[in-house]
Design a protein that fits this description.
With about 280 residues, the chain is of the alpha/beta class. It folds into two domains: about 140 residues, HAD superfamily/HAD-like (Rossmann fold), CATH 3.40.50; about 110 residues, 3-Layer(aba) Sandwich (Rossmann fold). The protein has nine helices and 17 strands. The chain has a seven-stranded mixed beta sheet, sandwiched between helices. It has a four-stranded parallel beta sheet with strand order 9-10-11-14. The protein has a two-stranded antiparallel ribbon with strand order 2-3. The radius of gyration is 19 Å and the shape is globular. The two termini are about 15 Å apart.
């Protein structure tokens, strides 16, 4: 499939933020934010051409950051996974929904929680001073728990029935895998809503534009010189729209061309995979 241009006017809820096309050579792009699952790799397998693409943007001097809603892993675990795939990265280049969650908990002055999440997520929260196994939690925290047990579901449900509010790391319903979609945090959230009637007070992660805007500000860049590359319309491309950066949709993960044609989001560019970029 050839690269497709969408509207020259990129429109968000704030109005038209810039009026410039983007093509697959990424001309005038100074920083790129890369989703991982379905964009750089699928499960434990690299997307074909991903390494060559990363080498090309490095040669061009384009700053790159890895951005993921997948809260099942800590930063150190992501660095190890990327290293095993031949992708060197630093902690500063990893931006997770768990970081967004921690920022929200800090603003809300929340330190006592009951976590439905992995050991990796627990590690990140507890390193930041958040108790994840409180007997008197201020919030139930729901993440992408690939180590889920019925005991966790039961205890969290009881807290929710007793009026403890819920915060969620990200909204994704499905985690892409080589064998098809797997239940993600949004699917767990649907379970809790069905069994307790509780809806979350807040959902962190993409499409919250703050996940990238703080880094763009830190780098002193203009939003129209930045791009978000991802495989999901309702998180990756929605965040690009809200942040005013270019959205590049790859069809190597969840979204299809048909999905894009019927979506409210406005990607600047659609390609089969990152292999077609730069």
């Amino acid at each position: 499939m050839e690269s497709l241009f969408f509207n020259e006017n990129i429109t968000t809820s704030l109005g038209v933020l810039f009026m410039r096309k983007i093509n697959s050579d990424l001309e005038n792009i100074n920083a790129i934010f890369l989703d991982l699952d379905g964009t750089i790799y699928m499960g434990d397998n690299l997307i074909k051409g991903a390494i060559d693409f990363l080498n090309r943007i490095e040669e061009r001097g384009i700053k790159r950051f890895f951005l993921s809603n997948n809260s099942s892993k800590s930063v150190d675990q992501y660095l190890l996974k990327l290293e095993k795939m031949g992708i060197p990265a630093t902690k500063e280049e990893i931006l997770l929904s768990t970081h967004d969650l921690l920022s929200w908990l800090k603003v809300e002055n929340i330190s006592e929680t009951y976590l439905v999440g992995t050991e990796g997520m627990k590690e990140m929260l507890e390193e930041a001073g958040v108790n994840t196994r409180s007997e008197e939690p201020q919030y139930v925290v729901l993440g992408y728990d690939t180590e889920i047990t019925y005991q966790k579901l039961t205890k969290a449900s009881i807290y929710l029935h007793n009026g403890v509010p819920l915060v969620v790391s990200h909204p994704d319903m499905v985690c892409p895998s080589p064998n098809g979609g797997l239940p993600d945090t949004g699917a767990y959230l649907a379970l809790f809503e069905a069994t307790t009637g509780v809806t979350p007070k807040h959902i962190c992660g993409k499409p919250n534009p703050g996940m990238i805007l703080h880094k763009i500000t830190e780098l002193g860049l203009e939003t129209n010189a930045c791009a978000m590359v991802g495989d999901r319309l309702y998180t990756d491309m929605e965040m690009a729209d809200r942040a005013g950066v270019h959205g590049i949709l790859v069809l190597s993960g969840e979204a299809t061309a048909e999905d894009a044609a019927n979506a409210p989001q406005s990607p600047s560019l659609i390609v089969d995979s990152v292999a077609q970029l730069c």
